[in-house]
Amino acid sequence: MSETLTIQSPSFSEVARARRSVRTYDPNYTISKEEMTELLGDAVTAPSSANHQPWRFLVIDSQPLKEKLLPIAYNQQQVVDASAVIAVLGDLESYRKLETIFGRAVEAGYMPQESADSFVANYTKMYTSVPPEVMKKIVYVDGGLVSMQIMLAAKARGLDTVPMGGYDAAKFVEAFGIGERYVPVMLIAIGKAAKEGHPSIRLNVDEVTNWNEFTL
């Protein structure tokens, strides 16, 4: 069953507080490519280091491919019952897109060509000179930012998600032909809950926050 998804315009606080990790999904509910594209369009407005946008997505909504993913994800049932699984990947060579990104900024009137050329040259030099482990940390952070935005964009549309770190990353990249320049950040199952996620407790803000001096 496919339904047209519309944002219900809840407040951000309502969306954030209503989001729960859901592991039981309606296997008959589908999300169209157009609807998923719209959702991801909201998600990619997330911030990233130097606006280099290193996230890449593999949307797995084919049932045979979800079945293929199931043992790689340690047989977690949501992999096959959710409408799709979004693999969030980090591009270790994302600097290759900088010319496109800043070129479009020039076309949009956001900056002069001279500034764009400078940014491209400086950031390319920076990203090509950092050690691989540093670059991985950068794309993991940025991948986490866009992943959270995916989950909030989904909830705003009445959909449910669960972030998944429990899978064999090496087997995943092999099975799905992921090139060496990409690193898996996480999997996100997305669909309609057949059973609501259970409520959970969060520490109070005053238990996790200091002001001006860290004393926790």
UniProtKB/TrEMBL annotation:
<comment type="similarity">
    <text>Belongs to the nitroreductase family.</text>
</comment>
<dbReference type="Pfam" id="PF00881">
    <property type="entry name" value="Nitroreductase"/>
</dbReference>
<protein>
    <submittedName>
        <fullName>Nitroreductase family protein</fullName>
        <ecNumber>1.7.1.-</ecNumber>
    </submittedName>
</protein>
<dbReference type="GO" id="GO:0016491">
    <property type="term" value="F:oxidoreductase activity"/>
</dbReference>
<dbReference type="InterPro" id="IPR000415">
    <property type="entry name" value="Nitroreductase-like"/>
</dbReference>
<dbReference type="InterPro" id="IPR029479">
    <property type="entry name" value="Nitroreductase"/>
</dbReference>
<keyword id="KW-0560">Oxidoreductase</keyword>
<feature type="domain" description="Nitroreductase">
    <location>
        <begin position="17"/>
        <end position="192"/>
    </location>
</feature>
